[in-house]
Each structure stands twice: as structure tokens, then as C-alpha cells.
């Protein structure tokens, strides 16, 4: 490694950038990393001034670095954003309880408001209880489906305009590979998007879409950020694990492989004959769904009826149609899932309370 930073030509080079192979100093690394994220934000017009933006904060390296960088860029470039930390407590003892302690410290360190919503509070089931019922196989399905909705529910409680997550370039490239391997063409089209916003739903984006995981780890290390680094106790998703290994092997021989895969995914076009699922609202909870009853409601009903395999596997569509129009039988444990219309109304009222002397009509959607 040359002694002098290849960027500033002054300070001592102390690291080699995984993305470019350049040998650079710590300060130049911070600057290029932050500037690249800023360029991603600006080029993709991710935010508008005044947006209330929730950072999906798990306490892990990606979201901790994201919180730090979002706060830094918001101040440096005067984006004019109101930033919040939004965490989901899935109820995994020995894992999420510890990582949430990190988020609580980040709240103080970064002076950002924090909201924690839990599966127990929202659905009446913690992941510990779910795993007790369904076992270790398939539990990731419950966790992923419930988390997506939980973040949106939390966002409405805070009246957010936007949620950012710490998904990085490696995550995106892995997802592209997985969708190719599975032949899931509709998902392949969607997974390369940097921001998604379903009609009337909260926009979600990935400012780290082009940031390498190795650089995020380096950034956290050199900035001495406080993050939690343990893997989930309930076995990681095996299929993604294989895609990850494959990607790491490719990266080892050709570091640009990660970005190359993302660019290939972006350039692919879904043929017009591929049928994309149409979106509607779940007739039970009002959440966006491609079926009459959303996946979260189907999974919940399965748990409550003692048939947790309901909604898992190939017969999902059939099960969802079967359940449509019927009221779930709720066990003593379950809570009634709050309807999304109620949450949206709450968000409108909050917005109304915040604007002083305005003439906005709280009964009109989207005000
Ligand atoms: N419990 C949670 N609460 C809030 N946001 C979450 C939670 N879990 C995941 N996220 C969001 O989704 C992103 C990707 O989550 P994933 O489970 O892939 O974790 P990860 O890649 O290990 O990220 P991190 O290092 O931030 O934990 C996270 O960076 C974070 O923004």
C-alpha cells in the first residue's frame, strides 16, 4: 500500500477502498463515502424539503451508519428534513432486546426522536411466541411480512412522509441474484428500484443502494459508531445465505461485481407479457395487498387458529381467497389489528395539529 493518500496526496493512506481499490486516508474515506451517499440522494431526488423521514433503526451496522450519515448530510447540505428513528421490536430475546438498547443510545448520541413499535403490541404475537408455535423453519416468513407492515404502522403513528432503510449494495445484488435464480421476474423489476411508493403509501428508499457492505463496516469502525453486531438467533434465511456466499466469491475476484449486478438488474426490462400483480387494499386491515386479504392477516389467522402453515407455501393465493369476507376467529392472546384507515386518520390529525393557522381539511385524504 502506498504511504500517501491517493486522493489528498498529503495524509498517510491507512485503508484500501473495497469499492475502488484506492489507498486513502481516513478523512478522505469519510468524505468520499458521505459524498457518494449524498449524490445518490440528490440524483434520485429522494427527499423534499420539510419531509418527515424515519430511519428504520435496528441497531445493526447498516442502519446505525445510515442514521449517522443522514444526520450529517441533513446538516451539511441543509436538506431541511425532520429525522426520526423508527424501530420494530420483533420480540426476540437475546437479540432484538439487546440491539434496541443500542438504538436507545443512538437516540441520545444523535439527538433524534425514537419510536419503538412491537409485534406484541401490534399483532399480539412476539417472534419468540411464534417460533414456539411454528418452530424454526419458516419463521423468517412471519418476521419479514410483519416487519414490513410494522414499519408502515410506525410511520403512520409518527406521520412520516418517508422511511429509509440500511439496505446496501450487497443486499440489492443478492436480491437480484435470488430473483433471477427463482425466476421471479415481477420481483426482479421491483427490487432494483431505489425508492418505492405504492399509491398513497409511505415512500421507502435505500440511500445505501450503491454503498458496499465492507465500506459500511469500515465507516462504522473508523467513526467508532456504537452498533450491535450479533446475528439473529432464529437462523438466517438459508437461500439468501447461498446468494451471499456466491456474491462474496465474485467480489473477491472482481470487486466491481456488486455494482455490475445492480446495473445489470436496472437495465433488464420486464417483458410486457409478464403479468405483474395488481395492488389492492386488504379487506381486513386496509394494508396494500395483491390479494383480497394481505399476507400478514393470513399468517395471523393461521397462528390464532393453531394452523400456522396457513399462508406459507404455494397455496397462498387460494388461502387468501378462502379467507376473504370471513372474520378471523381470535384466540384470547390476540389483539385486534388496527385498521390502516384509522392510522391514516391519526396521521392526518397530527399533521393538522402541527400546522398553525392553516386551512387544511382533516377529513380529506392526503392533507
Ligand atoms: N427491527 C427493525 N427495526 C427497524 N428497522 C429495521 C429492523 N430490522 C431491519 N430494519 C431495517 O431494514 C434494513 C435491512 O435489514 P436487515 O435485516 O437486512 O439487516 P442488516 O442488513 O443486518 O441491517 P442492520 O445492519 O441495519 O441491522 C436495516 O438496515 C434497517 O434499516
UniProtKB/TrEMBL annotation:
Pathway: tRNA modification; 5-methoxycarbonylmethyl-2-thiouridine-tRNA biosynthesis
Record organism: Linderina pennispora
UniProt cross-references to Pfam families, sorted A to Z: ATP_bind_3, zn-ribbon_14
Top EC class of this enzyme: transferase
Domain of life: Eukaryota
GO biological process, one term: protein urmylation
Keyword tRNA processing attached: yes
Binding, ATP: 56-58, 62, 88, 166, 171
A molecular function (GO) term: ATP binding
Cellular localisation: Cytoplasm
Domain tRNA(Ile)-lysidine/2-thiocytidine synthase N-terminal: start-end pairs: 53-241
Keyword line: ATP-binding, Cytoplasm, Nucleotide-binding, RNA-binding, Transferase, tRNA processing, tRNA-binding
EC code: 2.7.7.-
Family label: Belongs to the TtcA family. CTU1/NCS6/ATPBD3 subfamily.
InterPro entries: CTU1-like_ATP-bd, CTU1_C, Ncs6/Tuc1/Ctu1, Rossmann-like_a/b/a_fold, TilS/TtcA_N, tRNA_thiolation_TtcA_Ctu1, UPF0021_CS
One Gene Ontology cellular component: cytosolic tRNA wobble base thiouridylase complex
Originating gene: NCS6
Name listed for the protein in its UniProt record: Cytoplasmic tRNA 2-thiolation protein 1
Amino acid at each position: 500500500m502506498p504511504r500517501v493518500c491517493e486522493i489528498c496526496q498529503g495524509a498517510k493512506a491507512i485503508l484500501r477502498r473495497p469499492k475502488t481499490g484506492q489507498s486513502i486516508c481516513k478523512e478522505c474515506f469519510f468524505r468520499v463515502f458521505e459524498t457518494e451517499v449524498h449524490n445518490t440522494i440528490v440524483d434520485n431526488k429522494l427527499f423534499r424539503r420539510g419531509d418527515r423521514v424515519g430511519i428504520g433503526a435496528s441497531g445493526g451496522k447498516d442502519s446505525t451508519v445510515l442514521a449517522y450519515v443522514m444526520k450529517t448530510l441533513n446538516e451539511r447540505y441543509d436538506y431541511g428534513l425532520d429525522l426520526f428513528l423508527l424501530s420494530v421490536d420483533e420480540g426476540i430475546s437475546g437479540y432484538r432486546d439487546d440491539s434496541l438498547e443500542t438504538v436507545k443510545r443512538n437516540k441520545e448520541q444523535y439527538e433524534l426522536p425514537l419510536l419503538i413499535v412491537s409485534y406484541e403490541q401490534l399483532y399480539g404475537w412476539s417472534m419468540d411466541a411464534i417460533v414456539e408455535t411454528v418452530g424454526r423453519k419458516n419463521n423468517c416468513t412471519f418476521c419479514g411480512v410483519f416487519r414490513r407492515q410494522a414499519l408502515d404502522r410506525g410511520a403512520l403513528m409518527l406521520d412520516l412522509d418517508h422511511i429509509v432503510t440500511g439496505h446496501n449494495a450487497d443486499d440489492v445484488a443478492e436480491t437480484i441474484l435470488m430473483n433471477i435464480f427463482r425466476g421471479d421476474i415481477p420481483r426482479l423489476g421491483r427490487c432494483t428500484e431505489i425508492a418505492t411508493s405504492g399509491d398513497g403509501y409511505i415512500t421507502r428508499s435505500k440511500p445505501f443502494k450503491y454503498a458496499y457492505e465492507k465500506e459500511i463496516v469500515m465507516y462504522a469502525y473508523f467513526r467508532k459508531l456504537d452498533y450491535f453486531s450479533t446475528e439473529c438467533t432464529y437462523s438466517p434465511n438459508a437461500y439468501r445465505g447461498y446468494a451471499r456466499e456466491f456474491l462474496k466469491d465474485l467480489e473477491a475476484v472482481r470487486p466491481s461485481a456488486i455494482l455490475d449486478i445492480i446495473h445489470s438488474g436496472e437495465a433488464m426490462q420486464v417483458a410486457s407479457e409478464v403479468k405483474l400483480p395488481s395492488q389492492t387494499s386488504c379487506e381486513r386491515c386496509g394494508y396494500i395487498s395483491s390479494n383480497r386479504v394481505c399476507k400478514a392477516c393470513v399468517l395471523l389467522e393461521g397462528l390464532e387458529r393453531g394452523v400456522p402453515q396457513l399462508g406459507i407455501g404455494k397455496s397462498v393465493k387460494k388461502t387468501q381467497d378462502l379467507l376473504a369476507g370471513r372474520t378471523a376467529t381470535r384466540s384470547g392472546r390476540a389483539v385486534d389489528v388496527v385498521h390502516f384507515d384509522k392510522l391514516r386518520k391519526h396521521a392526518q390529525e397530527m399533521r393538522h395539529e402541527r400546522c398553525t393557522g392553516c386551512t387544511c381539511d382533516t377529513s380529506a385524504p392526503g392533507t
